[in-house]
C-alpha cells in the first residue's frame, strides 16, 4: 500500500461495507457486492484508474439494489477523500471521453472539495442483469458528494451495458489524471491555499 491509501467501513441497517483503496496501485481488485454487473463495473473502474481496490458489501438485495449501490458510492467517495488528504500537489482537474462500441461517455472532474454532480443522457435499457440502470447515476452522485468532487458525466449510446461501462471507465481515467502529483506544484492547486 502506498501513502495514498485508505480503508473505510460503514454499517447501517441496510448495508455493511468495507472498502480498501490504494490510489497509486496497478488496477488490482477484489469486489463482492452481490450484484454481478456492479462488481464488473467496479473491477473496470479499478483497472482503468490503476487503483487497487477491495470492496466487500452485504446489502439488503432482497429489497432491491438501491441501498447497496448508493452506499458503496458513499464509502468509495470517503476512501478517496481520506487517501488524498490535503490534496497537496494534485493536478486537481481532468476530463476524459471514453467510447465503448456505439456508446460514448464524457467526464469532467474537479477535486475541488465542493461536491456537485451533473448528469446528462439516458440509459437505453432499464436493467443490465440485476442492476437498475439509473443506479449508475445515483452511484456517481453518492461518490462525488463524499469525495468532495465536482463531477459532470454525459452519456450517449444504444446499449445500457455499454453506456454505463463507458461512464465508469471515463470517471476512472479522469480520477487517475486528477489525482496525479506534479512535483512543480507547491501546495494545492488553488489561490485559497486549500481545497
The CATH level-2 architecture is identified as 2-Layer Sandwich
Shape: globular
Uncertain segments of ≥5 residues (pLDDT<50)?
Answer: none
Work out the number of β strands.
Answer: 10
Strand order of the largest sheet: 1-2-4-3
Q: What do the pLDDT scores average to?
A: 96
Which structural class should the secondary elements be placed in? alpha+beta
Q: At the first level of CATH, what is the class? A: Alpha Beta
Overall domain count: 1
Helix content: 25-40%
Predict the CATH topology.
Ribosomal Protein S5, domain 2
Organism: Salarchaeum japonicum
Protein name: Imidazoleglycerol-phosphate dehydratase
Catalytic activity: D-erythro-1-(imidazol-4-yl)glycerol 3-phosphate = 3-(imidazol-4-yl)-2-oxopropyl phosphate + H2O
Pathway: Amino-acid biosynthesis; L-histidine biosynthesis; L-histidine from 5-phospho-alpha-D-ribose 1-diphosphate: step 6/9
What is the strand and helix layout of this fold?
Blueprint: E1 5-11, E2 15-22, E3 29-32, H1 36-49, E4 52-59, H2 66-84, E5 93-100, E6 103-110, E7 116-120, E8 127-128, E9 131-132, H3 134-147, E10 150-156, H4 160-178
Please provide a written account of the structure.
It is a single chain. The protein is an alpha+beta fold and 195 residues long. The protein has one domain: Imidazole glycerol phosphate dehydratase, domain 1 (Ribosomal Protein S5, domain 2). 34% of the residues lie in helices and 30% in strands. It has four helices and ten strands, in the order βββαβαβββββαβα. It has helices spanning 36-49, 66-84, 134-147, 160-178; strands spanning 5-11, 15-22, 29-32, 52-59, 93-100, 103-110, 116-120, 127-128, 131-132, 150-156. A four-stranded mixed beta sheet has the order 1-2-4-3, covered by helices on one side. α1 (36-49) links the parallel β3 (29-32) and β4 (52-59). α1 (36-49) packs parallel to α4 (160-178) and α2 packs parallel to α3 (134-147). It is globular, with a radius of gyration of 16 Å. The model has no long low-confidence stretch (mean pLDDT 96).
